[in-house]
Structure formats: C-alpha cells, structure tokens
C-alpha cells in the first residue's frame, strides 16, 4: 500500500501548487511537460526547493494560477523559513547544490541558488553559497557572473567568523576558479595573483587536481605572456615559454598521478604547443601523433545517447576536445611547413572531433581552416594547391565568430575578431574589416568595465 503524501498546508507555495495540480487531475509528469524533471516539481510542492521566477511563470501557466499570487506565497515561504531555521536550511541548500554540482548537474544546482538574496543569509553561510553559485556559473562558462559571485564571496569570507582552516579546499577552489575567470576575461595580472595565492594554500589535505589545475592555468598565462611580447624580445619570450612548459609539465605529472588521464592528455596538447614554439618540431609531431592514435578510436565507439549520464557525456566531450586540439596543432605544424594538403586533412579531423566537443574547439578548428585557406591563396608556387575562393575563407572565419558569439570566451572572441578583421582589411573589405575590429574593441571595453565595477561591487548588485 503506497505511503500517504505528507500534508502540505495550502497556504504555502508548495501546498498551493499541489492543490491546483490535484484539482486539475494532473500527474507530476503532466505538469513537468518535459520542461522540468518530475523530481524538481515534487520538491517544489513539498517546499524543499524555492522555485525560480522562470519556473514560477511556467507553473502558473500550467496550473492556471495567478503569477502574482504565487510570487507572494514564495516570498512568504522564504521569509518564514529564514525565521524558523536560517542556518540549517541554508546548510541543507548548500549540500544539495554541492551534490548536484559534483554530478555535473549544473543547471539543477544553479536552480537552487539563482534567487538567493545574500545579505539575508547568515554571514558564515554567505560566502560559501556565493562561491558555490559562482562555481555553477563557471561550469556553464558564464565567466562574468562567476567572477562577480567569486569577488563577493572573497569579500564576505574576510568578515566570516568560521575557522577557515577547516574549509581549506573550498577556499582553494574559490581562488582557483576566480583566477580562471580573470584569465578568460584577459585580466592577466589578477589571474597570476590568484593562481599563486591558490598554490600558497597547499596543505596535506589539498586535492591534487586543484594543484594541477593551478599549474595548468599558470602555463596558459605564461604562454599568453610570450605571445604578447615583441618578436625582438627573444630572451624574454624564451623565458616565458620555459615558465609555461614547467607549469604544464607539473600539471601533467599531477594529473597522471591521480589517473586523470583525459586531463593529462589535454595538458599534453598544451605542452606540445609550447615545445613547438621552442622549436622541438619532430618531438612535438611524435607526441601529437601518439595522442591521436590513442584517443581517436574512442570517438568511433558507440556515441553517447540520450540515456547517458551527464558525466558520460562530459567525458566524451573531453575526449573529442583532446582529438580536436591535437589535430589542430598538427595542422599548424604542417601549415608552417607549407604542407597544405596534409594540413587540410588534420583540419578535417579537428572539425569532425570538434562537432562532438565544445564551442571553443569548433571555433579553433574553423580559424585553422581559414588560416590554411589564406596561406594557400598567398602561395606563389605554381605546384601549390588550387586557389581557394575568398568567400570560403570568410566563411571559415565567420563560422568561428558565430560559434563563440553567445559565450563568455572573451579572450578567444577578441582574438578571432582581430584575425578576421585584419584578413578583411587585407583583401580590401575596409568597412567589414573595421566592423570586426570594432567588435574586438567593444569586447575589450566590456572586460575593462567589468574589472572596474568588480572593485566597486555592492550587495545590491547580487540580489
């Protein structure tokens, strides 16, 4: 005999929703309508989860209820809950969101945290919940929102009465991901400071993957530093590249030591890129060819299905990212050697893998395709490949722009706009080229504005 449902007062948001559903003789699945999980609807009905404004609008429409009425009940429920057991409820919320995040169910975790009003949360929970929401945004690659939450969390952490030594891993992850948002938003000095701060917090309890991720980030920053230096500053470039290589090798060693082989392979792609710039071409080709030989067959195995878990899908994307990145790097080596036919074969492989990976990988592959096409057309050797239609080159760069247009990959977007703009200027499309360069300037201004506003952040901006 099924256990009777726990009584939920109809004067609460959950009770009102359940009563309306039962009056309409609808099941949880009927209400969810494929838009939300039945588990989420059930938890909202039991007042276990506070619904977001988006889900409230959805439920008001599905259950033929007044949205203002539901919003008022939600506010009353939140205020009553805070009065009855403020610390306990927020601790349960933090644990639930953490568990979802660890299972890579980022949207569900963020759903629990999106409507939080931080000033109303007890101080010792405030910074932890702000950081946790930042990690959710970070997982969605929404770096501007993540950075805002992380900075707020750091500020609140400094006023917390909790013994921070017992929360060392949480503190490290906060600094680590804040560093990554700074790097993604082209704020290199701030990123360096946060990465080194992360490493200064290392203790016996520190997870190895946190340390590895810090070294990975530092490798990327030193590589970017080398790219920004004038080509005449050969010694400074070489020094920056050697710093990058040292950190990348540390990250790779640490990932292998904890059997994080996909991460180790991804860092190996970075090591290959650094060594290529140091001139070790033959070694790099061998390294990348071995990577492709190992990981490419895993992509032709049965693809992940709709029944696959989020973690399985993420793992498949990581493998596709490794293959795409390695193929792109090999294409670049062949491009430098003017082996255009071979370069195009690697680009084709990179594009195929990138379709199963991340937007950033697809954008990189399209940029590489545009670069190869551009070099073929610049070739004066009659034995070279047939010239490429200029519209194909534009299309490749345009597709790269489109892939990242809705993302917070600011640094990558700026780079692509600049490359595309310079190409358009070179072929005489002055207006179109200037437009691309202007888009790059606007993104750069956006980052500058974000950096300035971060230092002036007030509680009201995070309500």
TrEMBL record:
<feature type="domain" description="HTH cro/C1-type">
    <location>
        <begin position="17"/>
        <end position="70"/>
    </location>
</feature>
<dbReference type="InterPro" id="IPR019734">
    <property type="entry name" value="TPR_rpt"/>
</dbReference>
<dbReference type="InterPro" id="IPR010982">
    <property type="entry name" value="Lambda_DNA-bd_dom_sf"/>
</dbReference>
<dbReference type="GO" id="GO:0003677">
    <property type="term" value="F:DNA binding"/>
</dbReference>
<dbReference type="InterPro" id="IPR011990">
    <property type="entry name" value="TPR-like_helical_dom_sf"/>
</dbReference>
<dbReference type="Pfam" id="PF01381">
    <property type="entry name" value="HTH_3"/>
</dbReference>
<protein>
    <recommendedName>
        <fullName>HTH cro/C1-type domain-containing protein</fullName>
    </recommendedName>
</protein>
<dbReference type="InterPro" id="IPR001387">
    <property type="entry name" value="Cro/C1-type_HTH"/>
</dbReference>
